[in-house]
Structure prediction request, 383 residues.
Amino acid sequence: MTPPPVPFAAIVVAAGSGSRAGGGKQWRTLGGKPVVRWSVEALLKAGADEVVVVAPAASEVEAETALAGLNGWRLAVGGETRAVSVQNGLNALGGHPDRPVLIHDAARPFLDLALIHRLVAALVGADGALPALPVADSLRRATDGWVSGGADRENLWRAQTPQAFRWRTIVDAYAAWPKDEAATDEAAVVERAGGRVRLVPGDPRLMKLTYPEDFAMAEALIPRQVRVGQGFDAHRWGPGSSVWLCGVEIAHDQTLIGHSDADAGLHALTDALLGAMGDGDIGDHFPPTDPQWKGASSDQFLVHAVERLTARGGRLINVDVTLICERPKVKPHRQAMRERLAAILSLPLDAVSVKATTTEAMGFTGRGEGLAAQALATIELPA
Ligand code: MG
Prediction:
């Protein structure tokens, strides 16, 4: 990684109520981590020696939870307006008055390291640096849903954050800003005070999460990797009158013996999911020595694995289970098993496969000593 040109600090403004995006958007999860965490991680990784997160009053718990395990950030309390929030953040920063400060909106999570370094470098010989994108669409004015003339897009740019300034420049500019006027952004404040703000190429991925539907678009922008996991399980036959397989109870003249309900199909599938995540195996999560899992319905093991996947921002793509036994006949129950798995996993039916085979009377399954199950799971995880 390229080192930062000079030491710099950052302010991440997470103080808005975010009402247009459904409220509290800075704490919402995106790709398995809270929105605010994306920027704070990026700034720390880019070499920021101090990051102040400005959050609404009484949101310490949300902030601590969202940023757990990260070092180098601290909290400042937000104000009535964005301008007050930024100034609270500036007051909370120490360091040299000429130190560059990047002021960023938490609602723009996909902050690129190269852009951060570009901004800090652009401050040489300028009073501020602003990432911006050219306006590609043509611009129109409209009144009550009717087009009423056009507007020239030449020399128009879409301003993004972070915006970079030396600490002293932005503090002085805010001091000179008329109290009764709302500031659009820091660049406007510095410009009004006579400063020259340099334009730096922005980043289209640095989109702002404004409306609820923006979250779906942002999720789609997160690079993901496809992974595969496999699982295997076997249980011994014993006296009984029914057997659980893939979450379905089948009348049978024997049952499978185990600590839980001995559903080998669900156990193999749970291991396949955990395997794809590199997250241990079913015994790590549900020790057979633990009395609370005695006779337990195995669908909860699978649900747990899916929850672990969801918590990491992952998604299940498809599963494929093979049951290996001479008896009972699986085929009459296959559709019910697929439907049950699809329901547990929230997958469409065509993404769930249950197959069965015998071993031609060979081996422990062939001799009727036990039943075995194999499973594969394909998942997607944020890369
Ligand atoms: Mg088992």
